[in-house]
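Quick start: what a row looks like.
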Amino acid sequence: MRHLIDPMDLSVQEIDDLLDLADDIIAHKEKYAKVCEGKKLATLFFEPSTRTRLSFEAAMMELGGNVLGFSSSDSSSSSKGESVADTVKVVSCYADIIAMRHPKEGAPLLASMKSDSPIINAGDGGHNHPTQTLTDLLTIRREKGRLNNITIGFCGDLKFGRTVHSLIKALSRYDNIHYVMISPEELEIPKYIKEEVFEKEGITYDQVRTIDEVIDKLDILYMTRVQRERFFNEADYIRLKDTYILDMPKLKSAKEDLSILHPLPRVNEIAVEVDDDPRACYFRQALNGKYVRMALIMKMLEID
């Protein structure tokens, strides 16, 4: 039995195989409609979610399986003081596979030590979000036709953004990736990413303060929101929340084949006018999340 806690739990070959399976699911949906018949997915979301939770549920349903679970800690026995370990131990008696989101870093790892069913980390605090990483990789590959030889800019909350941390780690194993970090000083990429990924692997990166100075060089622009729920100080959040807003004037100097990604939800960081630009990929990205989670569920349940 395997768990998926960190995107680095998967080899490059396993990632490529998952993306190939997701592509085949997209092309031949009817072939996969009953492969998980009789199987149950539990979604244990101790933190609010729309896309991740619903895409997991839609993925299992489209594979012919069933779904159970909860969408907030208030509706679970954790509100009575039950530990994560006990919750997972019990739920693994009822479900074949578990997708878990928790605000505390390391909670899904702890759960994996107690569970009798495979655990998929659906996001733990500001740490990891491996299924969003798979979603991002599938989107990049479908938009660009490759996962190497690209310049990618990460913009916004790079300190608390678990999607950014996970994607940086995953892309570090592909060739000729150039990273551009766009953030205010307070939201720079954390030290552990710089040390464990960039310095360890000998990867160079640029660190800038504005989108305008680098947008013409980017193949991919990965926008993120400033996450109110990660701030201890409301004043700091208010001061930083509108630091970066991508609008049509900013896109004038961008490449014609730029791909704009965003893990969503967005607040103000991408103007609605950008949605109609063919370079806006974020809603296609959300749809890709369902297909890559279908592929992941099949692989983790060892369904051929």
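That is the whole record. Strands lie at 40-45, 66-70, 97-102, 119-124, 150-155, 177-182, 205-208, 220-223, 259-261. The CA atoms of residues 247 and 274 lie 6 Å apart.
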